[in-house]
Amino acid sequence: MSSPILAAALAAGLAMVIAPAARAQAPGPAQGQAQGQAQAPGPTLAAVKGRDLLICGTSTGAAGFSLPDSRGEYRGIDNDLCRAVAGATLGDPTKIRWVPLTTTARLTALQSGQIDVLIRTVTWTQGRDTANGLNFTAVSFFDGQGFLLRASLGLKSASELVGASICVVAGSTNELNLSDWARTNNIRYNPVVFEQNDEARRSYLAGRCDAYSTDASQLAGLRASFPNPAEHVILPEIISKEPHAPVVRHGDDQWFDIIRWTFFALLTAEELGITQANVDSFLGSQNPEIRRLLGLSGDHGPLMGLDRRWAYWAIKAAGNYGEIFERNLGMGSPIKLPRGLNDLWSRGGLMYAPPIR
């Protein structure tokens, strides 16, 4: 007669053998179905929905990124990303209150709750990420700092800027990068520091400084806006890495996810050939990846407290990432900036979205 201990051991062993097989045979989530419970709105999403308005921190003026047009409408890649978030959260890209912020005021405005999200040519750095109570969501633009100067100076390299006066914006990574670059290369220069980009631009044009140093993409935008762009050149040197990313406050993981995955949805749409104009034609698609993106299957929106068609509304609001880049910075814009590092990974760039599944 077998002992109780032996019987228990045999039963446990049999359970270990049967359990994996049962799990393998058990029906899982439907194709494209996300696992987990639909989420209630967190503090930031609840506030946005409660006021039926997204408060978006933007620039006081950076061509191609954020600049009011002749009708006072903000235009630029940063503004379109805000519109995509408004689409994803509220279903309406016009439900935005723009808060233009200087370089020195932008992080404080987010920390204090004056804005819901900061999408404003903010460079992701370790110090900002860890010491300010902020989270950077995803790199929305890869940039680097350069130099703009008059062609009449005849300079071909930044190493020739010895003794030059250089306009730069206070409180920006550009100010620190310029100092680091000069120290590393033993180059003496005279900084001319301003509170806002527009002040620096006007001073450069007025001849108060020999060169202007900021992110190369912004220099291209500035140059394109000048009365005679050909009279100004951008030197070939790039002296820093400037990854721009939308920023949110610590402590609201749901809102962090919404901002990050809205951007990833715009990248995914570009990969799949889905545009602002043709997105409706994909609503009958049987492609599982497209169905998950557009909310035709799965609960990816509800998992963030959003409608199932959150990504559809984001794309409808602003288009895919390629469209946003092209109309604001690319060859279809006055700036005519190549995609470069900001192209999709499948075309040699660095833009790569994790899968929605």
Automatic annotation (TrEMBL):
It holds the Pfam family SBP_bac_3. This is Amino acid ABC transporter substrate-binding protein. CDD domains: PBP2_BztA. Belongs to the bacterial solute-binding protein 3 family. Keywords: Signal, Transport. Residues 1-24 form the signal peptide. Residues 53-280 form the Solute-binding protein family 3/N-terminal domain. It comes from Paeniroseomonas aquatica. Transmembrane segments: none annotated.
